[in-house]
From TrEMBL:
<dbReference type="InterPro" id="IPR011251">
    <property type="entry name" value="Luciferase-like_dom"/>
</dbReference>
<dbReference type="InterPro" id="IPR050766">
    <property type="entry name" value="Bact_Lucif_Oxidored"/>
</dbReference>
<dbReference type="Pfam" id="PF00296">
    <property type="entry name" value="Bac_luciferase"/>
</dbReference>
<keyword id="KW-0560">Oxidoreductase</keyword>
<keyword id="KW-0503">Monooxygenase</keyword>
<dbReference type="InterPro" id="IPR036661">
    <property type="entry name" value="Luciferase-like_sf"/>
</dbReference>
<protein>
    <submittedName>
        <fullName>LLM class flavin-dependent oxidoreductase</fullName>
    </submittedName>
</protein>
<feature type="domain" description="Luciferase-like">
    <location>
        <begin position="1"/>
        <end position="316"/>
    </location>
</feature>
Length: 351
């Protein structure tokens, strides 16, 4: 198993100044490398305290690359629908070169109606724009004198500069939330998978992973090349009571920020987002105790978290786990303690 940190901001200006958030996040990146974590990951979101401090993960990861030398840098994820493919491919290729080939590129569809409205893009175009955007970026990385004739973008002949450091291109991952067909599509294309187990039942996550693996096998791909990332809110303390108390507080903080961001789904419908009409109710009814009972959060003492990770491995296999250590406006010292305890007492059990 491999472990990294997912720096998902759930704060806004009334909670923490942006400069302070980025200083703290970069300090956590340096600590994660010192403790031999596999990766650092961050998101693309806009406007809300839920992720809004990270409108461009490439910018943050470039700063992280300058402060580190080994840790992998993962976009989790960039949104092709919101950026022209030439711009997106060029930014990512620059980062891959700046980091000497440490980049993994996660692509996502996005799911917040307010973001689509601001960019003037219909929600119903999300899937075709995603598919076209990923295809265009991949071709720009690998093709000289590319002529691209898509539904939304037409250009060429062009040759991207710079080309990526990794050849033929950086590893590609695809974010999927609740749709098994999306997981299977990622497998068939040889991509990795980004999942958030907290929003699904264990059986649903197992179904999605099984579909991903089956599609890879049907495509004749080596099982050793699979790349499945699962993100979990994480809070560790040597004191179990403190871990549960603060883990609950930051989990509820994050959930409240998510509820603000998804509120538009209360009056929004899209054929491209089946089931999302229920998301407000699901987020509203989220319960920390149930989440902990169902092993959807890595909260507790180091020994307890070892047991939780062992269970995750039994359920899903040797996956890659991303620790969301900034799941609320917690002090930097608490995030550092969580990373240090995990790195020193949990990670070695699974390396």
């Amino acid at each position: 198993m491999r472990f990294g940190i997912n720096l998902f901001p759930t704060v806004g200006p009334s909670d923490k100044a942006a400069v302070e958030y980025f200083d703290d996040a970069l300090a956590l990146v340096e600590l994660a490398e010192q403790l031999d974590f596999h990766h650092v990951k961050t998101v693309e979101h806009y406007f809300f305290a839920y992720g809004g401090y990270s409108p461009d993960p490439v910018t943050f990861l470039a700063a992280a690359a300058a402060r580190t030398s080994r840790i992998r840098l993962i976009t989790g994820a960039v949104i092709p629908a919101f950026t022209h493919p030439i711009k997106l491919a060029g930014k990512l290729a620059m980062l891959d070169n700046i980091s000497h080939g440490r980049l993994d590129v996660g692509f996502g569809r996005a799911f917040l109606p307010d973001e689509f409205a601001a960019f003037g893009i219909p929600l119903d175009e999300s899937r075709p724009r995603f598919d076209e955007g990923v295809s265009a970026v991949r071709q720009l990385w690998t093709t000289t004198d590319l002529v691209f004739d898509g539904q939304f973008h037409r250009f060429g002949p062009v040759t991207l500069l710079p080309l990526t450091y990794q050849r033929p291109h950086p590893p590609i991952l695809v974010a999927t939330a609740i749709t098994p067909s999306s997981a299977a599509s990622a497998g068939a294309n040889g991509y990795g998978l980004l999942l958030v187990p907290s929003i699904n039942k264990r059986e649903k996550v197992q179904e999605m992973i099984a579909g991903y693996r089956a599609a890879r096998a049907a495509a004749g791909l080596d099982p050793a090349g699979e790349d499945i990332h699962l993100s979990y809110n994480c809070y560790l303390s040597e004191d179990a009571g403190e871990a549960y108390r603060n883990g609950r507080r930051y989990s509820e903080w994050t959930n409240a920020r998510l509820l603000e961001a998804v509120s538009a789904w209360g009056v929004t419908r899209s054929s491209g987002y089946e089931g999302y009409e229920n998301i407000v109710q699901k987020v509203s009814s989220a319960d920390f105790d149930s989440s902990l009972r169902d092993n959807k959060a890595l909260v507790g003492t180091p020994a307890e978290v070892v047991d939780r990770v062992t269970t995750i491995r039994d359920w899903f296999g040797d996956v890659t786990i991303s620790l969301q250590v900034v799941s609320g406006n917690m002090p930097l010292s608490e995030s550092q303690r969580t990373i240090r305890l995990f790195g020193e007492q949990v990670l070695p059990k699974f390396s």
